[in-house]
Amino acid sequence: MPLPNHKVTICGIPELSQHCSVGVSHVLSIIDTHEPRPPVLDSFSVIDHELIRFDDVVAEYPGFEACTPAHIIKVLEFGERVHARPGSHVLVHCHAGISRSTAAAAILMCQHAPGQEEVAFLKLLGMRKHGWPNTRMVEFADTLLKRDGALLRGLDAYRRALLQEKPHLSDVIRNIGRGHELPV
Length: 184
Fold this sequence. Notes:
Layout lengths: L6 E6 L13 E6 L16 E6 L15 H15 L5 E6 L5 H12 L5 H11 L7 H10 L5 H16 L3 H7 L9
Parallel strand pairs: 1-4, 2-3, 2-4
Helix pairs in contact: 1-4, 2-3, 2-4, 3-5, 4-5
């Protein structure tokens, strides 16, 4: 089954204003629990907007709200609405457009394309010059979509390809405390 035909754009909050007039039909916002709703979202014309709040962490940490399966269920419900409108243009954003948004974009591309998980994740390489999808989100989506590790294998293929292009990112990932996510 091929990837869905809807267009997917990924960005961070600072870039949202660049996308107000490009025909976006759906916006998925994944932001920190205490982050205010970005006012620039009011500049978009009629959109289907889903706001989901959790912090960009890949495990449970005191003082942070980690992603739960309930959050990913909301992402998948949003994906059903997108899928119901062929030709949609989906804008997925988080704070910086690096971790939660790239994970969510890949999940949305995989949702209705079983067997295309690696293709979907590798597509991220051309969509965002830098990204490191949130592993916890992908783990929950893999379980909820009953993909038996296919999303995680796609994530691993993406990370290997990204690090082949940009080997210096290994040090960056280690320095932010996510070295355990580096492919072995």
